[in-house]
Amino acid sequence: MEIDAAALKRKGFFQQAQKDKYSLRLCISGGTVSTGYLKKAIEIADAYGAGQIHVTTRQQLEIPYIAAENLDALQTLLSDANIRTFIGGPRVRTVVACLGAAVCKFGQIETGELVKAIHDTYFGRELPAKLKIALTGCKNNCAKVEANDIGIRGVNQGYVMYFGGCFGHETRVGKPLLPVLKEKDTVLRVIDYTVRFFERNAAKGERLGKLIDRIGSDAFKKAIEAAV
Ligand code: SF4
Questions:
Q1: Whose Cα sits closest to atom 5 in ligand 1?
Q2: pLDDT of 165-215, one tens digit each?
Q3: Ligand 1 atom nearest residue 105's Cα
Q4: What's the gap in Å between 115 CA and the centre of ligand 1?
C-alpha cells in the first residue's frame, strides 16, 4: 500500500518510529473537552490504538499505535463523528489556555470565549511558518505565554500581550510591546493585525520572533499599534 506520510500529517496522523504505525492527534483548543468527546477518544484508542492516550505538552490528546491498514476506516469514523484533528506544519495551531477566571480563583480574565473566538477564526490558517497562541489568566502564567508567538496574560486592568516567543530547538521569550489592553475586542483586533502582518511579511519558515528581529520591534509595533 502506497502511503503519503506528509498528507496524513496534514490530517493529524503522525508516522511513528515504527513506520507501519501512526499516532493520531485530536484537535483541542484551550485544553477542555466534553466527557462525550473524551469517551469517543477512548473508544478510538481501544478500537484502533493500544488502549493508550497521551496528553501532549500543548494540551492535545494523542492516540498512538494505529496500524496503517486502519487509517482509512478511522478517517471515515472521524468524519462521520465530526471530530476534528490537529493540523501541523506552517499554520495557526491550536490555542493553549488555562481555565481563567471562570474556574480559577486567581483568574483576572475569562479565557474560554477568547479561545473560541481565536480558534474559530484562525485555526489551521496557512501561513509562512507555524504560529502558536496561548492565554493565561493571571501572573502565575500556568500557560507560559511568553513561549508562544502570541501570548495573552490577564492582569487586573485587562490584558498584556506578548509577541515573538518560541520554545523548541530555539528559545525566545516573547516581549510585551503594547500598553495593557482593556477590552477583549481590542485583543482580537491586535491578533488579526499580527496574523495579517505575519502572513504578508514573513519568509517561508520564519517564526514571528525572527521576523520581529529582522525588521526591528519598532516597525512591528507600528504595524500593530493601529489595532489598539
Ligand atoms: S494562570 Fe492564573 S488563572 Fe490561570 S490557572 Fe494559573 S493561577 Fe489560575
A1: 98
A2: 999 989 999 999 999 999 999 999 999 999 999 999 999 999 999 999 999
A3: 8
A4: 15
Separation of alpha carbons 116 and 94, rounded Å = 10
Provide CATH code, domain 96-225: 3.30.413.10
pTM for this one? Answer: 0.94
Q: What's the 50 CA to ligand 1 centre distance in angstroms?
A: 34
The cell numbers describing 220, all together, are 512591528
Positive or negative, the CA dihedral 124, 172, 226, 110 is positive
pLDDT digits (tens, 9 = 90+) for 102-121: 999 999 999 999 999 999 99
Ligand 1 atom closest to 108 (CA): 3
CATH of 5-80, one of 1.10.3210.10, 3.40.50.300, 3.30.70.3340, 3.40.50.720: 3.30.70.3340
User: For ligand 1, which residues put their CB under 6 angstroms from it?
Assistant: 98-100, 104, 106-107, 136-138, 140-142
Return mean pLDDT, the chain.
95
Every domain of the chain with CATH number 3.30.413.10 lies at 96-225
Q: Which pLDDT score is estimated for 1?
A: 59
Tell how far the Cα of 60 is from the centroid of ligand 1, in angstroms. 19
Residue 145 Cα to ligand 1 midpoint, Å, equals 12
Phi-psi label, residue 79: left if phi above 0, alpha if psi -120 to 50, beta otherwise: alpha
Residue with cell 477568547: 114
